[in-house]
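Sample pair:
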Amino acid sequence: MVKELPNTKIVLGNHDLHLLNFYDKIVDFEVSHLEQILTAWDGDKLVKWLRMQPLVYHNQKYNCVLAHAGIYPGWDLKTALDFAQEAEKALHSESYLDFLKHMYGDKPSSWNRNLTGWKRLRFIINAFTRMRFCDLQGNLEFDHAGKIDTAPNGYLPWFKIPWRKTKDIKIIFGHWAALDGQIEEPNVFALDTGCVWGGNLTALRLDDELLFNHKGAVAI
């Protein structure tokens, strides 16, 4: 079990937040892929442990950041870490149910330093857990989950935005299975290679940035 492994670091993604919502009966949707957790003998402990996990993990030794969907192009590393902690504080608090109730929605679609309340937290959560395409004005688009060439007019993958502020650090992300790990961007590593759909489970060795799947080392 992952939570029992020593030195394990994980970050929350959109499906983890779905699980928390369904567990607390805030929303109702198809949860066939979550039933094993919900019906496990230690399901209550697993869900409580999950809720206390971070949205972002920063490893200073390797100058890398792990985030489920990536880092919003308009944020530098410090800003991203600060905003992650802001949302984590709400999720870890005793009033976390209010946070979960207001979490869903596609608006606002772009960051504004004047955002407050649920709109502010919703954007932070969406950026870290749902982001794929972004336009040059910083607006996120949540309807398209296909390959890069399926981007809506005027949109690019978030990691291709020219003014992205985190080009000097390594970013490791998942979420976007349609990419199949196939991106050409320095310091950006897409690890979701569709394991849940029958594809490979891919891992990155930080020491030499070598990728592995169940067959061994791979070139992606």
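Residues 77-92 form the longest helix (16 residues).
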